[in-house]
């Protein structure tokens, strides 16, 4: 009897396993396309008309705080008839469903429809003018979804090929870690400042992590954030020329935003850096927030130096690392 029960249990377990396998989502191919690229599926007449201008104004507007003009995303237009299976594997797709029979106008956000990890956004509207209204109402959410998808791909790739020892160094100082991919190396570490960078022949992607006591009356004002930044950079980031060091460019006023991501409230600061007494510069973005005990301000900063290349994608990659930050659950020992 025990043998029969055992056999029945095994068969039931096997059936259950097969059933689960049949219900599992089919494995999807990897996405195609370049980072920062978006396919826009809309008819030629609309692409060349007012709707196309609205799409370009939203998704191909100038990327803020770069030394040269670069679009936020690189757009590729396809008519619905040309949107074949090959293009359905692209990483970012925005489809315009413009039809007089559309009843519920709005935006639908989907992931991993034809490939992985994929962002697919569909704009439903009864006519081109209505589609423009939908874009005006949902524009920031659309760009936010694409930006988050781009960011998530960088973080996922980082976790696959992580240089975990660098995260340990960061955790020891601030009680939380930033994840870095292979290629990044530790340049400098003190009690209150860490410099980590991926240095290649013609480009550098760098990250600074630093902290200071939360004693300022308004610690998250643009003036205080930049003043503190300049003190750290002058002390810890010298350049090759005599009496030269990294600082914040005064030619473009930095901008700040108050944001929240994964339950972490922080101030995003964007601007341009330069080297005092030398001819170097580039974009930077930082996240400033309170330490766990509220006694310190912690700053995570991404910056790029790539004089021969466009900066948009370099900065987007490095900035994504800041979003990988997470508090350590076991205190600040970094282990």
What do these coordinates show?
The chain is α+β, with helices and mostly antiparallel strands. The chain folds into two domains: 37-158, no CATH class; 162-327, Protein Transport Mog1p, Chain A. It is 32% helix and 30% strand. The protein has helices at 2-23, 44-47, 50-59, 128-160, 164-174, 222-236, 312-322, and strands at 37-41, 74-78, 92-98, 106-111, 119-125, 176-177, 185-189, 193-199, 204-213, 245-248, 255-261, 264-276, 281-290, 296-305, 326-327. Strands 7, 8, 9, 10, 11, 12, 13 and 14 form an eight-stranded antiparallel sheet that branches. Strands 2-1-3-5-4 form a five-stranded mixed sheet, with helices on one face. A two-stranded antiparallel sheet has the order 6-15. Helix 3 packs parallel to helix 4 and helix 4 (128-160) packs across helix 7 (312-322). The radius of gyration is 24 Å and the shape is elongated.
